[in-house]
Sequence to fold (412 residues):
Amino acid sequence: MRQKLLPMAGLYLVQGLPYGLQSGLLPMLLRTSGLSLTRVGLAKGLYAPWLFKLVWAPLVDARGSPRVWLALSTAGLGVVCGLLAAVPPTEAGQGGLPAAAAGLLLLLNLGAAVQDVALDTLAVQLLEPQELGPGNTVQVVAYKVGAALAGGGLLVLVPALSWPLLFLFLAATYLLAAALAWAAPALQQLPKSQPSGPLPRTQCQLQALLAVPGTLWMAGFLLMYKLGEQGAGSLLPLLLLDHGASAQELGLWNGVGAVACSIAGSSLGGALLTRHWQPLPLLKLLLQLRLGGLTCQTALLFCLDALGTSVGPGTVLKGAALLSLCLQHFLGGLVTTATFTLMMRCSQFAPRTLQATHYSFLATLELLGKLLMAALAGALADGLGLWTCFSLFLVLSAMSTFYLGLVPSSYQ
Fold:
């Protein structure tokens, strides 16, 4: 099993780099440039290519080897990062990112989404049922390490290191990862997808996806389970910035410290799944704990807003805010590992020639739920006010907890 997981860990680590760059670094830069919460949230539209993974997932299933797709897409990401080195995206003004940087980031997300399809295909085909817990722990932990390095790590280094050097470093990292994807012995042993005739029509393919046991329930859960958490998590660091915290400090805590807590939660989730717990009962408990943590975080934010208090150095409220941030990331890591294990179990019910498309379908829905709230959270806060907005996040989080009670028998 170690021979399988080691190369996958390296590839999942580089897979997390674009997410960390755009969720940890760019929002802080745009907010400090004076953009409204609505404009900062709408910048998440750069993730749009991820929502179209089903366009090329059938190609990965039916044309060539997933290893070839993985190596080529990863190498392409290295080329895009090399181009970004010549177009620093830190020159954001009131209008947002420069057009050239925004276009390259869209291209970066396109390559990352193709890489994601190929890598998930390898995981679904490579891992045995008893290896799903450790495999998903490696996936989530390595991905979050990459996100932390590209998000909080880069934000801390921005004052001392130039953007060209940072992006050249990322380009070299992707090229090394492409070589790993091509040369790793465990990945070379995977069966190639069987060449086939014309790809199935979209309508027939969708019917086949929905016919896989448990897919409809899983789709509904994935669309809603992160809505409340993602909305609060997107806004809280920006609101702390408005209350006096520095961008570098938040980069350290939100991009590194909180992600370290998330990694710890994901690791604990993998250990529990491997030794003691089934995914479903574990997930039920975790969703209840997450709802309690979000309630405490919301009460703290209301207190800050009502009192107009600054979270300057040494304040008790600052410590409580950072603690709540870390706690929610820890619980979020546990929830993500359990959820991804359920997703992969569901995709293994599908025929082998449909597994990449099926998992990409579920992963797209999971991303859609997160991206939708991340993009709209700022507009909701500006339009409804913080009190109403965070109350809505609590309701959404409670809905996912109740929805889990409708789980079909295939997951019991």
In short: The first helix runs from residue 2 to 15. Residues 64 and 193 are 6 Å apart (CA to CA). Confidence is low (pLDDT under 50) at residues 90-94, 191-199.
